[in-house]
Design goal:
single chain; mainly alpha; Globin-like; two-stranded antiparallel ribbon; globular
Length: 154
């Protein structure tokens, strides 16, 4: 096999070949659906709506589409640094990450077929853990105490 199907190259993420149904359109539906949920969420909405001005949302959504495209489809569209803005959020804690993951999981399960949802969720869990470790380290906290959030606990 030459790594292409119907002229489309396939990517391997975390040792799993991505289903060809996972494409830019699906990523856009996930990102836009997720941030629509975030903006109205009682816990996360105030954080995001304070950090991102109303007129800046289209740019933020495009950047997040680029992030997920680079993360899953291995495109090179995202060149940002996602961690620093999160480090600047005072009081950011496990409850915020749990809510973020719960909303994200609900959206990907609604938008994606199960095999694609599983790929999105696995990556989101890893990102959340990495960010939680970085937040704890940045605050001078003991990172040994930061355990991964497991999907089954959401």
């Amino acid at each position: 096999m030459d790594g292409t199907q119907h002229g489309k190259s396939t990517a391997i993420v975390d040792g799993v070949q991505l289903p060809t149904v996972l494409d830019e359109e699906m990523i856009q539906r996930v990102v836009h659906g997720f941030y629509e949920e975030i903006r109205h969420d009682i816990l996360l909405g105030p954080i995001f709506n304070t950090a991102i001005a109303e007129d800046a949302w289209p740019t933020h959504l495009a950047k997040m589409c680029d992030f997920w495209s680079a993360t899953l489809l291995r495109t090179s569209r995202y060149a940002g640094r996602p961690l620093p803005p999160h480090l600047a959020i005072a009081g950011l804690g496990e409850m915020h990450f749990r809510r973020w993951l719960s909303l994200f999981r609900a959206v990907v399960k609604r938008v994606c077929p199960p095999e694609v949802a599983a790929i999105f969720i696995a990556r989101a869990l890893r990102i959340a853990h990495s960010f939680r470790l970085a937040v704890a380290f940045n605050r001078g906290e003991d990172t040994i105490q930061v355990e991964p959030i497991l999907e089954g606990s959401l």
